[in-house]
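Input record (Table S2, row 636):
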Amino acid sequence: MKDPANDLVNETVNDPVNETVNDPVNETSGGPSDHPLLSIEDLRLSFGGVLAIDGLTFGVGEAEIVSLIGPNGAGKTSAFNCVTGFYRPTAGAVRLRGRDITGLRPSAVAALGVARTFQNLRLFGEMSVLDNVRAGTHLWIRQSVFDALLHTPRYRRGEREITEQAHHWLDFAGLRGDRYGPARALPYGEQRRVEIARALARRPDLLLLDEPAAGLNHGEKAEMLDLIRRIRDLGIAIVLIEHDMGLVMDVSQRVVVLNFGREIADGPPEEVRRDPEVVEAYLGRDADEAEIEQARASVAGGRDDGGA
Amino acid sequence: MTRRDAGPRSIASRLVDSLTENRWIGLAGLAIALLAPFVNATPYAISVMTSAAIFVMLAAGLNIVVGYCGLLDLGYAAFFAVGAYTSGVLSTRFDLPLVATLPAVLVATVIAGVVIGAPTLRLRSDYLAIVTLGFGEIIRITATNLDVTGGPSGIYGIPGLAGDRISFYYLTVLVVAVAVVGAARLGRSRLGRAWRFVREDEDAAEAMGVHTYKVKMAAYIAGAIWGGLAGVLFAAHLSAIAPSSFTFLQSALVLMAVVLGGMGSIRGVVIGAVIISLLPELLRDLADYRFVAFGVLLIIVMLVRPQGLWPARAREAARSTAPREAVR
Ligand SMILES: Nc1ncnc2c1ncn2[C@@H]1O[C@H](COP(=O)(O)OP(=O)(O)OP(=O)(O)O)[C@@H](O)[C@H]1O
Ligand SMILES: [Mg+2]
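Output record (magnesium ion complex):
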């Protein structure tokens, strides 16, 4: 996750964006409606000559679910890292409601209403599950050092409120395990829920989910699908990276396909699943009839493969 | 609501929890410190206990940096020195009472924290350790070579903060108690959580909107203030300071107290500091071998309990912040 680009971002200790950190509402309200929530324009990213992303353009509207798919190493996670400020793109722009957020540091992007999860779970393992979710409230709880030292009423009120919030989002994400113990003690599937609850506690307008169903069993996948829909029903837009085509075709309004960093398709699921280039990308160039048929089936996704 | 139960846990473990999480433990520790002079009030014993209390404050400060925020600092004595020298120089040069130097001490320690933090907090933790080590030495060598600071022999005749030894001891205990409670409260606040987010996973913390650089800087500044104020107590206690009090050994001992007690655990750190400062005195009968015995004991403890004597635990008490929830 550490990269040289991040250091550039870190240079600006007192950039103007930080002043808005405690006031995300101010930033997001009154945004002209003619701007899409998120728009990515001709994004390019290279690592020492290797093109991880080679021209990616797509938009996400309010409360829309867009899936970003593609074979391993296609550049999906890199795209998330560019949007959230972890990587600085080599070229192109990322806009949030029309505002250019390219190159902002991750915490500034988060302050503007973008939350994410990570492909390889990134929980605060030695902290309680509740504390993990409280992280999402960091930006909107008002508490000075003096409140904390003197335990003022504002401190007590704030702490009580964020604890309630943490419980609320854990309930929402359907966590069954122990909330008071360390996050690392939870089973894998439960940790995924905690990570999503943490992102939701940020109260984002846009949520980026990087393979939320990876490693989940059949039943857990179905619950994840339901959770994703319920998140969208809150009015939160979602960009989903997912390898499970059944889940993708079921939940997405639009699907963007990346292959070797290049965008090869962008459209509704029915259209994308029939796109020959997409089928080929999932297969490779020289395949016989049977294999193509298999790939087509895989891209199309079985109904019972995550829907139930 | 049933989901909010802490889960199936044995009565024994709950009992241990309620004993160790109990706030009375802190008060018991304070009571021991306040009653100690009634057991032994020789000037020597009072002096040793005063030093121990000051050492506790140092450990509480370093715990913010190392224990909460996970930033390895090998030059913490530098802040101790900045505090001691600022108050020492100002009080002797301008004939000021020590209390009057406190604002200057705060300013100087915050500046020291920013000066060392600003360039180094972008570094990975292992580089940070080396740079802080260097910074500690630079401060000490500067104090040795400057005229204002009295060169190698240091400064004499620093005024005290209270009349006699005993009242100064009590004053020190009170100041240190406030400092320890303050550090613990910071640790349980929004900022304290952010410190731990940074320690656990910097990227995830950033993704949640935590400006990790500012948060690390805040840990550094808090550590610097705690160390600097401990330095003022130190100067008042000895009435003389010299560069030899602020060596790498001093930094290492404070770090040892934090690690021995349990990083990030305020109770553990207080106990670790008391042990590290009192053990060599208790082993006095062993004469020259006492430091060997000291070292061996520490190694044994770290082998048997690598997490520290009283480690911080991730588990939070169900009642800690939302009393109304637990009742239901
Ligand atoms: N920090 C980095 N340094 C160098 N190369 C990188 C870095 N991050 C990603 N890459 C490269 O960029 C390309 C795209 O990687 P990315 O992780 O974005 O793929 P992905 O689509 O998320 O794949 P997967 O489905 O396996 O998660 C890969 O070739 C990868 O090796
Ligand atoms: Mg990926």
